[in-house]
Amino acid sequence: MRTEKSLAPFTRNTNTNHYHTMYFTLNETRTRLTIHADAEERAGFAEMKADNPDDWGSYQTEIAIMEPIICNSELNWINPADTGDLTDAPMIGITGGDDDMTRECTGPHGAIHGGGDEEGAFYYPILERWAYMSYETQSFCDDLLETGKAVFIGGSVQEEPTTNHRATAHTPADYDAAITAIMRSDAISGRAYEAALTAIRLAREEAESH
Fold first, then answer.
1. Are residues 140 and 186 in the same domain?
2. Given Cys at both, which of 44, 55, 72, 179 links 19, Cβ 3.0 to 4.6 Å?
């Protein structure tokens, strides 16, 4: 069985969690997780980039930069393959503990394989997850260095917006409205976002042809 992490001393309120000089905050609906770095941390990042510019923004650098938070909080790195999200974005999340262990590979956002025993495999549910969705053009390391903030999108299933993004209208104007709603929403992103827009645009074309 997995041993739960012990938390280092930190200052907590409902939506703010401090670890060393880096900390993260959550919005009220827990759909946005923001990593914050102060001036001292950013100076350290600048040195890392200057010392090894070819590695800046790499997977190894992202692991190193997030280490103070990952090692001292309930956050873990999450493999998108375990959540079913169709993205390669860097992803962090919160998983259940031993009390939440299940024999089924299921959870609010999937589950991670925890190992096996005489009864078979066991899993830990992924309770919440957040992904850095600008990963195709830059690294969250760049955001932390330049602005001191990096935003990850996701959240709890129970707290995410429940808007139905499937177009049910029958006129081109209604399909246009559905496309606009998706483009303004934070509830869908990455490949799922692109697939939804494509599906509605195809439906709009079909509606125009009738």
1. no
2. 72
